[in-house]
Design goal:
With 414 residues, this protein is an alpha+beta fold. The chain folds into 4 domains: 250 residues, Rossmann fold, CATH 3.40.50; 30 residues; 63 residues; 54 residues, no CATH class. The protein is 36% helix and 19% strand. It has 14 helices and 18 strands. It has an 8-stranded mixed beta sheet with strand order 2-1-3-4-16-15-12-9. It has a 3-stranded antiparallel beta sheet with strand order 6-13-14, with no helix packed on it. It has a 3-stranded antiparallel beta sheet with strand order 7-8-10, with no helix packed on it. A hairpin with a 4-residue loop joins β13 and β14. The longest helix has 22 residues. The termini are far apart. About 5% of the residues have low confidence.
């Protein structure tokens, strides 16, 4: 079960329309959700959650006992996502850093800007620097709007039991406004960490300072911007623990029509989630792989030849057929065999009512060692005479065709 903190004046709530897309994602993905409304005061209560989201408390602080219990929760195998926002603890009036220092990092009291790569405003930098990790799989770029940076501590208590590293980093053109305790100072901060991953004893922690990534209010920087939604999906998959019990989590770029179909089936047939439907489908695909692939390749090649035969434009093809072709194109191409061409010609005969036959050699005969095939002698007049009486080529790619060879034998035999 996934637990959301509701006890520290958190901005992120499931009921808020500002986070509708993120909430819908949670339910569609099959996550079981719970609200933590009485604080972090009981380790036994927290143990029922596989993961906890602690998101940007506003003008309220964690109690020392809560910090201790959260540390023990992670130490014993719990997983924690900690999210701050622009200005860090100073602007938000909280003390997340008293907790995060346990895990080896702090949220900096700053706001990140990029002078080159950004969306509309420099405070919405586009991030393209990633370290290879489960969290960054299939990520090309994300946008971090109104976010703070992260400092990885030089000295960490219980260092032998903590492994910490950044997975997202600002660009070389990054600068920030940082509060130094009295003034806001502007300075360059290239390659500063923006997201960290921590392995702490038996548990895991992810921390970043971009609260607006959950927002549905703005397409240019919120949940649906660039690969933001994939990033969040990867973080939850990493933290929720499915790596241990259910196998490796994979984020899939699902065809939109297939997604709507699957989502409808899940609702009508009362599946637990789209993931279950996909797993059953893949199991069937695995058990019948050879037969399915053979049929898919036959259908794909058949459609390709039909389009060529009738010279249809893409606009004339029905939407459903285009969608199917797009999916079938994912199947690896194999070398065409004689049997494939025979099936294609058979299909064309059914459609056109005409008779087709193969007029070129697809298989080279293996000659005995030391023997060479006697060159066939013919003249240009022979080729012209043959092609006048037959609707076929006499020579194909510099070699006489089967039909031409047989015609020559009959002609010179007479």
């Amino acid at each position: 079960m996934l637990g959301l903190d509701y006890s520290h004046n958190n901005i992120l709530t499931l009921e808020s329309s500002s986070f509708g897309e993120f909430t819908q994602f949670l339910f569609t993905s099959g996550y079981k959700l719970g609200k933590i409304e009485t604080g972090f005061n009981s380790l036994n209560e927290l143990k029922k959650y596989k993961m906890i989201i602690l998101s940007t408390p506003k003008n309220i602080k964690l109690q020392p006992n809560e910090i201790k219990i959260l540390g023990n929760y992670v130490k014993n195998g719990g997983n924690l996502l900690i999210v701050s926002s622009t200005g860090g603890d100073y602007t938000n009036g909280t003390n997340l850093n008293e907790l995060t220092r346990t895990f080896g990092f702090e949220f900096v009291s700053d706001e990140i800007y990029d002078s080159v790569n950004y969306v509309n405003l420099q405070k919405r930098p586009i991030i393209t620097r990633f370290k290879p990790h489960v969290i960054t799989e299939q990520i090309n770029k994300v946008v971090f709007s109104s976010s703070c940076s992260i400092k990885i501590l030089d000295f960490i208590e219980d260092e032998k039991n903590i492994k910490i590293d950044w997975v997202l980093q600002a660009s070389l053109n990054c600068w920030h406004k940082e509060y130094d305790g009295e003034y806001w100072i502007e300075e360059d901060c290239p390659k500063i960490p923006l997201m960290v991953v921590v392995e702490y004893f038996k548990g895991k922690v992810v921390g970043f300072g971009n609260f607006s990534i959950f927002s549905s209010l703005a397409r240019e920087y919120g949940f649906s911007a660039f690969d933001n939604n994939i990033l969040i999906a990867n973080i939850l998959s990493f933290l929720i623990g499915s790596l241990e019990s259910e196998g490796k989590p994979v984020t899939v770029d699902l065809n939109l029509d297939l997604y709507y179909w699957a989502d409808n089936i899940v609702k009508e047939e009362k599946w637990d989630s789209v993931s279950d439907l996909i797993n059953v489908s893949l199991k069937y695909f695995k058990d019948n792989y050879s037969e399915i692939i053979k049929e898919i390749k036959r259908l794909r090649q058949d459609r390709l030849e039909k389009r060529k035969a009738y010279d249809k434009s893409k606009k004339e093809v029905a939407h459903e057929e285009i969608t199917d072709d797009h999916v079938l194109e994912k199947v690896p191409v194999i070398e065409r065999k004689k049997e494939d061409l025979e099936e294609i010609m058979s299909a064309l005969e059914d459609i056109t009512g005409e008779k087709y036959e193969i007029s070129i050699d697809l298989e080279e005969e293996v000659e005995d060692e030391g023997e060479e095939e006697t060159p066939l002698e013919y003249t240009e007049e022979d080729v012209i005479e043959f092609e006048k009486g037959f609707p076929k080529k006499g020579v194909w790619r510099g070699k006489p065709t089967i039909a031409f060879k047989e015609w020559l034998k009959k002609k010179y035999k007479k």
